[in-house]
């Protein structure tokens, strides 16, 4: 295990209830024959994250039963219905004291973003002050890497479905954008029509 494998932890936000998908939790949608959350974890591991934390919310017990998440730290977000911000806070909180110097954060519902894009973002890690994001034709997207020096500020500003958006806007001058449009497609699985993207 190289130094960076251990210092950059993977963090999958997988708590959403899939409101626009008739209440089907996104973590449990089937992609390549397995729950989508398994795919998301596999992407971060393939990108070099030895430690992966997964934030669960909607039907967490069922996700635990159906998905193979051995070796992951599973984090329950009791407030998942308040939006992605609460999941980001829970995930970053779970990394406190773990020795991780940065978190590589991905969303469970973006299967078009694979290990190549995630590895590019991870490779831009320098130290606890790093702020790195994948970009698609110059537009910031996921995954994003938050150095540990930013965790408290991000957690304080993460409310509703905004996640880290406000914090990143304030610190845009320090953000390193890594172009990934050549290797990934940043669509979300939000609606019934989006299910066509699953394989």
Describe this structure in words.
The protein is an alpha/beta fold and 199 residues long. The protein contains 7 helices and 9 strands. It has helices spanning 3-7, 36-46, 60-66, 84-95, 115-123, 151-157, 165-170, and strands at residues 8-14, 30-31, 34-35, 52-56, 73-76, 102-107, 131-136, 139-147, 176-179. The strands form 2 sheets. Strands 5-4-1-6-8-7-9 form a 7-stranded mixed sheet, sandwiched between helices. Strands 2-3 form a two-stranded antiparallel sheet. A hairpin with a 2-residue loop joins strand 2 (30-31) and strand 3. Helix 4 (84-95) packs antiparallel against helix 6. The longest helix is centred in the middle third of the chain and has 12 residues, at 84-95. It is globular. The termini are far apart. 47% of the residues are buried. The model has no long low-confidence stretch (mean pLDDT 93).
Q: Please report the total strand number as a whole number.
A: 9
Major sheet characteristics: 7 strands, mixed
Mean pLDDT, as a whole number?
A: 93
Going across the major beta sheet, what is the strand order?
5-4-1-6-8-7-9
Radius of gyration: 15 Å
One letter per element, helices H and strands E, the order comes to HEEEHEHEHEHEEHHE
Q: What best-fitting shape do the alpha-carbon axes yield?
A: globular
Helical amount among residues, as a percent range?
A: 25-40%
First CA to last CA: what distance? 32 Å
Poorly predicted spans: none
Structural class: alpha/beta
Strand coverage percent: 15-25%
Number of helices: 7
């Amino acid at each position: 295990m190289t130094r960076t494998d251990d210092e950059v932890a993977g963090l999958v936000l997988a708590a959403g209830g899939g409101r626009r998908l008739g209440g089907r939790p996104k973590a449990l949608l089937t992609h390549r024959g397995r729950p989508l959350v398994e795919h998301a974890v596999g992407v971060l591991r393939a990108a070099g994250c030895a430690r992966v934390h997964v934030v669960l919310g909607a039907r967490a017990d069922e996700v635990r039963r159906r998905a193979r998440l051995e070796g992951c730290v599973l984090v329950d977000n009791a407030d998942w219905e308040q939006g992605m911000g609460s999941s980001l806070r829970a995930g970053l909180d779970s990394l406190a004291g773990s020795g991780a110097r940065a978190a590589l954060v991905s969303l469970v519902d973006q299967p078009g973003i694979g290990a190549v894009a995630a590895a590019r973002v991870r490779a831009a890690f320098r130290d606890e002050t790093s702020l790195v994001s994948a970009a698609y034709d110059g537009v910031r997207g996921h995954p994003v890497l938050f150095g540990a020096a930013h965790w408290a500020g991000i957690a304080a500003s993460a409310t509703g479905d905004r996640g880290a958006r406000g914090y990143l806007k304030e610190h845009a001058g320090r953000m390193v954008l890594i172009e990934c449009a050549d290797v990934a497609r940043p669509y979300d699985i939000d609606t019934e029509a989006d299910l066509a993207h699953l394989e």
